[in-house]
Amino acid sequence: MFYSPRDLRFHLYEVIQAEKLTQLPRFADHDRTSFDMVLEAAGQISETLLRPLLTVMDREEPQLVDGKIRVHPQMAAIIRRFGDDGWINAPFDYKEGGQQLPTTIMNAATFIFGAANYSASVFPFLTTGAANLLRSFGSKELVDRFTPMMYAGRWQGTMALTEPDAGSSLSDISTSAEPTDVPGEYRIRGQKIYISAGDHDACENVVHLMLARIKGGPAGAKGISLFAVPQKRPELGTLVDNDVQTAGVYHKMGYKGAPIAHLMIGSAEGAVGYLVGEPHQGLRYMFQMMNEARVGVGMNAVSIGTAAYCASLDYARERPQGRPIAEKTAGSPQVPIIHHADVRRMLLFQKSVLEGSLGLLLQCSYYADLAHAGEGETAQNAALLLDLLTPIAKSYPSEMGCLTTSAAVQILGGAGYTTDFPVEQFYREARIHPIHEGTTGIHGIDLLGRKVTQHGGKGVQLLIAEMQKTIADATTYRATNMPELTYLADRLREAISRLTNVTTYLLGLASNPTLFLADATLYLEFFGIVTLAWQWLRQATVAQAALATAQGDDAAFYHGKLMAARYFYEYELVKTLALAHRLQSTDHVTLEMHSDWF
Amino acid sequence: MFYSPRDLRFHLYEVIQAEKLTQLPRFADHDRTSFDMVLEAAGQISETLLRPLLTVMDREEPQLVDGKIRVHPQMAAIIRRFGDDGWINAPFDYKEGGQQLPTTIMNAATFIFGAANYSASVFPFLTTGAANLLRSFGSKELVDRFTPMMYAGRWQGTMALTEPDAGSSLSDISTSAEPTDVPGEYRIRGQKIYISAGDHDACENVVHLMLARIKGGPAGAKGISLFAVPQKRPELGTLVDNDVQTAGVYHKMGYKGAPIAHLMIGSAEGAVGYLVGEPHQGLRYMFQMMNEARVGVGMNAVSIGTAAYCASLDYARERPQGRPIAEKTAGSPQVPIIHHADVRRMLLFQKSVLEGSLGLLLQCSYYADLAHAGEGETAQNAALLLDLLTPIAKSYPSEMGCLTTSAAVQILGGAGYTTDFPVEQFYREARIHPIHEGTTGIHGIDLLGRKVTQHGGKGVQLLIAEMQKTIADATTYRATNMPELTYLADRLREAISRLTNVTTYLLGLASNPTLFLADATLYLEFFGIVTLAWQWLRQATVAQAALATAQGDDAAFYHGKLMAARYFYEYELVKTLALAHRLQSTDHVTLEMHSDWF
What we know:
Chain A is of the alpha+beta class.
């Protein structure tokens, strides 16, 4: 298996208690049974359609042939299946043909798809993201023109942001938009690079949600607008070429099955772009949707990590090699390597990072549901918490996913380095996540420079209050006299205090932004570890309480949870000692280093 | 450029003072000029022959065709060139046709070759290793039969250890050897896997230095013997097939240009193997050579890391993106990303880890020279220091090379993930080193379970004495009143004391080997960081002294050294706080976890 259905149920129903969402009017038609049906369907498609293509999509990567990117021939049927089964617009309103599925359940499903075959899962959910942007900010006419074919899986949606000179620095976008005689229609000219699913032969058309600059508009970030730029224009019932050319397909280290395109837009007569919403609001629109996309990236990282963890766990249980250290009998049989402490350490490392991250990501999804479908202070607070946690939810799993997949490779040893096993593929795939949807460096600056301070620091106050609720729960309500939980709760209390001290210290430097933000990436790592420790105390508290009556496999599962929590505190939380030390140091070596001293 | 000749000269001539080796009789014919000629020749071959094939050897990987592995067609000429120029036997005696080149200089040359093209550099130096085993323990007859063609680059040498059921657990080798009527000749039967350069069409023959078990010998490690098993037997001036079949070539994540073979030995009439040395001494012989091979692996890791560092440094200097954080002027030009603190942090991370590791590896090579060519206590102490430091010199650069190449990818961002730039290749190549020549887990157990305690702990005492000499040097002799050096020296003193405390604590657990060695991998990491800090204080002391008179580029170079030393202490040495905390914890979670709780 490539994920644990038991663990997913634990997060959804025992920790987060996702059924509570059905008390909100938007989700009133759902219940635990309908949630389970969704997850079961996701598991079924994943096993039967996605997983069998995992290896072949890596080996036979997309190629540009006669100006068109050719992807694996089965992708067309898969994308249509996602459309037919209603996955692409599942979270949207009934009146749009959606199912008003909570993001929490939707993201749990994407976790399953991504663990089965990350490349294949990219196509339909890019369309979901693009459609969401269109339906949130576009006119009814635009929505009607494009979204039905997108929901059906016949047209691909993309986010077209990056340009050769505008990657992390989006305000430097130079693709231009010139008004035509038709209101709302513009001629778009420029080029875009690294556009995921930007062109391929598994769909009939591609709709780019593209950032461009209306001529004569303000410079910088304030002059960027959002357009729908189709590869082919729907006109009078037919599709007309719209002057969006595919200049190339990038070959990548991993997730090779999903093509990344280099696009030339409007190099002949100019491509027609349809303005989405108001002019010059493009970056604002994009960033309103970005939180969800970023939680999605974190989820993808956990998916790939989980697939690698499962593969290494299977191997560790089956591969005999060596003997227990204390074994003295010559000629005794070799034991499965899971019996070696160092292998168990590498397995616990993966388990604690991945299950902790999954908990955090589903928690963030739950906040997204409360923020969108809830009301009043609950919704506002959830929005603030989601906003604060987004850079962590994106970056912590992405950075750590590189290390957990590396541990999976190490458990397999020489076998793990060969293409005979899938872990080397997961290792290559995991490496994209610290890069796309904002690099880790960008998220560090977002967290420390924006999220921590905005709204008078209310997000951090709310988060710490949540953590303290978890501590109270662990030490009193559910689990009286549980010394293990009390021990973990005390460590979390210390970590929160360490985080508060470091934050206060850094905010004292805020008048010098260069100094203030120099180590923002380390601050992000620090904050991420404390956040995961909070998640693990929640999981441990639930597990400890459940152990009172659990039997058999269930008892084993809860014991595993408690051990993983202990592992995280012993081996990971302890790293905040070193991080706090560095973050409060007055040696500004990265700022004092000269470029020509390297 | 793919390495820094200036930095290499700094290590060799300013820190280690490799010219002192020429005072030893074995190296008396050498001088600084001859050393420089060797390094210049290595640079020249690397640039003109090896580097141009870096990408193509990755893209067109070896294939098994009609039972023979086909490698890149230029490899034949390259291996012959290494033979013709005397590289393969350069460190060996004059009387064997060698040049008695110090290992220190030889390893500096392999550093250059590996940075140019790791895959290509593997072939000739595997032959060196195999020949060294043969000449050290084999009869004159065997040496004469095999080594001339190996030195000429016409026959490939290999180390054939691993079997399907014997990877980390070498004592489980089952390949069998049956005596024939000819003294010293045996019939060998079995299979070997993951044999580097185990078969290919760039040489005329392959000589495997193979471990096998003589029938009727003792069980376990004590019954393993060493054989020379050629692919083709030289008989009466011709080469006769020796029943060594290539069953497959493994496809790997990286260093794809070097083939790794699956061999079936003696499946028909049995392969003839020539016993090397005495029966049942195979593992002992192999491990006597292993120290050098392991230092070589560490060096390869630094080579690949250095190539990635250079590529990311070039990119950071040239790629404009974003503006300084304090820049407020809209429309100001973008700056090269090397001006961003987080990019400088990632560059300093690479520089400090790689140049610190290179220093350590050359230091170990120098100990190897003293141990082999020196006399009396100096030679004995050097051997002890080399023995102690080998697991660190192998594992620290290997583990960290995965992270430094990752930082290089991150600096290039999306570009780094594509095959348009070489950093993704380096990232894939780096991942082998924590696996081959003993996994990191094996080296942790070797360090804590054997090297720290053997000879009454004399190795550790000698090492700490060396570190204290460095501290004394930094604080008094060369650099009076250098507050920066004093600061670093104080930190190193603390770290040594932390290391001593942790070691003492762990040795207190030695009566329970399972407990004692459970976190040996973390101990290895801890010890490695302290060792690198020692190396950096040495480098900083030399740099600080040289700055008194240095000008221009030289001054910039020494400033860079001091900054990298500060970086290492600020961001890396500080990690020992967390490691020491964990290593002294009484929570034995990896031992208490049950296999069925995962």
